[in-house]
């Protein structure tokens, strides 16, 4: 079976796996530029774990809310807490993120011990990223989150760029950096919670980091970084799914692996340029 036939099979048999992985790849690659530029890369890992914690809570018999609602609610609460703590000077940023990360992981493990065995296994499947079984409902929820995020960034693109890439100048120009950072974290939290629910934390965290870093290795232009990062987020999921189909690999690791290979090639190119 050649590549064209494999892609045709994906379109016929697993259309939402293909559409969903591309949608998450583009969304996370775009938001990841801000995350990497702000030097809060660990924030992506923290928010994915907060999303999974919220999902795990919904498996408890006394928390009768939909999985997506639980994931979004806990993620947004975490965003508010983190955004307040990150603006304080007393505690280093990496320490704040580390505390929230390990607390979320520990809480998730404890909650899973109190869920029925089948449901605990279902949560583990989510963590690995069950891309091939993305439902139409979940895909359209993610599409709505994507539209929401892009609308916010189109409306406030200047403010986000200014606060992210030149915070000191933005402060002198009267921009309220804390308020704009809170808005950014809330938008990112919504996207990450839906994306983690759909494809798993490995995929989401990988694409929040790898495509932006790759783009930054290849260009110094802010516009170029966004374009290259989104392009990788668009193409790597397709190539990764094809390789997963050919070699019988898990989908999420294959997709992240493709993006990582591209990053390695970009690093070699940057060395040659020097």
Residue windows where pLDDT falls under 50 for at least 5 positions: none
Average pLDDT for all residues: 82
Q: Indicate the proportion of strand residues.
A: under 5%
Shape: globular
Can you summarize the main beta sheet?
none
Order of SSEs: HHHHHHHHHHHHH
What's the alpha carbon Rg, rounded to whole Å?
19 Å
Q: Span from first to last CA?
A: 42 Å
Please state the oligomeric state of the protein chains shown. single chain
Number of helices: 13
Structural class: mainly alpha
Percent helix, as a range, is over 70%
Beta strand count: 0
Task: Itemize the secondary structure elements and their pairings.
Elements: H1 3-13, H2 15-37, H3 42-57, H4 67-86, H5 93-112, H6 117-128, H7 136-155, H8 157-165, H9 167-172, H10 177-199, H11 201-218, H12 222-247, H13 251-273
Helix pairs in contact: 1-2, 1-12, 2-7, 2-10, 2-11, 2-12, 3-4, 3-5, 3-10, 3-11, 4-5, 4-10, 7-10, 8-10, 10-11, 11-12, 11-13, 12-13
Structural summary, described in words:
- The protein is built from 13 helices and no strands.
- By secondary structure, the protein is mostly helical.
- The chain has helices at residues 3-13, 15-37, 42-57, 67-86, 93-112, 117-128, 136-155, 157-165, 167-172, 177-199, 201-218, 222-247, 251-273.
- Helices cover 83% and strands 0% of the residues.
- The model has no long low-confidence stretch (mean pLDDT 82).
- Helix 2 (15-37) runs parallel beside helix 7 (136-155).
């Amino acid at each position: 079976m050649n590549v064209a036939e494999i892609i045709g099979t994906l379109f016929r048999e697993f259309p939402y796996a293909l559409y969903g992985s591309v949608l998450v790849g583009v969304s996370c690659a775009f938001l990841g530029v801000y995350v990497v530029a702000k030097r809060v890369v660990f924030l992506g890992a923290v928010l994915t774990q907060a999303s999974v914690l919220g999902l795990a809570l919904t498996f408890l018999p006394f928390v009768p809310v939909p999985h997506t609602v639980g994931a979004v609610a806990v993620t947004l609460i975490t965003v508010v807490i983190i955004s307040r703590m990150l603006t304080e000077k007393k505690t280093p940023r990496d320490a704040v993120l580390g505390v929230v990360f390990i607390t979320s992981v520990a809480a998730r493990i404890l909650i899973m011990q109190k869920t029925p065995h089948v449901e605990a296994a279902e949560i583990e499947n989510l963590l690995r990223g069950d891309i091939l079984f993305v439902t139409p409902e979940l895909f359209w929820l993610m599409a709505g989150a994507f539209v929401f995020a892009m609308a916010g960034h189109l409306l406030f693109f200047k403010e986000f760029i200014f606060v992210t890439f030149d915070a000191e100048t933005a402060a002198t120009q009267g921009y309220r950096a804390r308020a704009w950072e809170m808005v950014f974290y809330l938008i990112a939290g919504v996207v990450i919670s839906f994306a983690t629910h759909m494809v798993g934390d490995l995929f989401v965290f990988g694409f929040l980091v790898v495509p932006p870093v790759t783009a930054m290795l290849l260009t110094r232009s802010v516009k170029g970084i966004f374009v290259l990062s989104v392009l990788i987020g668009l193409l790597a999921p397709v190539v990764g799914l094809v390789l997963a189909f050919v070699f019988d690999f898990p989908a999420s690791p294959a997709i992240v692996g493709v993006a990582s290979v591209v990053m390695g090639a970009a690093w070699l190119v940057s060395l040659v340029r020097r």
